Amino acid sequence: MGAVAIIPARGGSKRILRKNIKMLAGKPAIAYPIELALSSGIFEQVLVSTDDIEIAQLSRRYGAQVPFFRDPELSNDHSITVDVMADAVERLQYQGENFEYACCIYPVTPLLQEYRLKEALTIIKSGLWDYVFPAIEFPSPIERGFKKGRLGSIEFSYPEFANSRTQDIDKTFRDAGQFYFGKSTAWLEKKPILNGVSTFLELGKYETIDIDDLEDWDMVEKLIISMKKNYF
Known about the structure:
Layout: E1 2-8, E2 23-24, E3 27-28, H1 31-40, E4 45-49, H2 53-61, H3 81-94, E5 99-105, H4 114-124, E6 131-137, E7 146-148, E8 154-156, E9 173-175, E10 179-183, H5 184-188, E11 198-202, H6 214-231
Parallel strand pairs: 1-4, 1-5, 6-11
Antiparallel strand pairs: 2-3, 5-10, 6-9, 6-10, 7-8
Helix pairs in contact: 1-4
């Protein structure tokens, strides 16, 4: 009763064209999570769920399995992670695969660290949680956030914290968008991740960067190249 890694990578990315297989510091973006999952040694299988032939071919080249193609209705802009994962887990079980845990690893996660996957597996094996995922602290308390009013004046989102010191406000975290380690049963039942029986790992501030546009892409690429130079 082990674990499998499932990397959901559809072909129709919008903000960054062909994002999942775009070259990033010398190799396709999807190569990073595939190689990381394989080298971790904690997964019985590393699979890619895709609707795209080119993504499938590249994924296989880097060592992942692509035992099926995802249906179009699960490959559009409105598809959500739990539905895609439920589909993959169900297909694998139908093929006779038996595993207790399935880890959804997003395809553009070049800063993900191997030990974080191992840490999450250890936590979920406790049996207390349906999902374990990484999160990062907001750099400044959201309770102190404000916007411009109709006439340009400051309007606090939470007026009761307007005069609070930032150090007196509890930390708040957000989903890091790297991976979700879940029980297979939780995926099949499509249990919610963020408002379900879940817990998170606290990442350091430099362990993840949201890649939403080409400017983000260039910044991460420079960081990866710099890290490689310093490592070698």
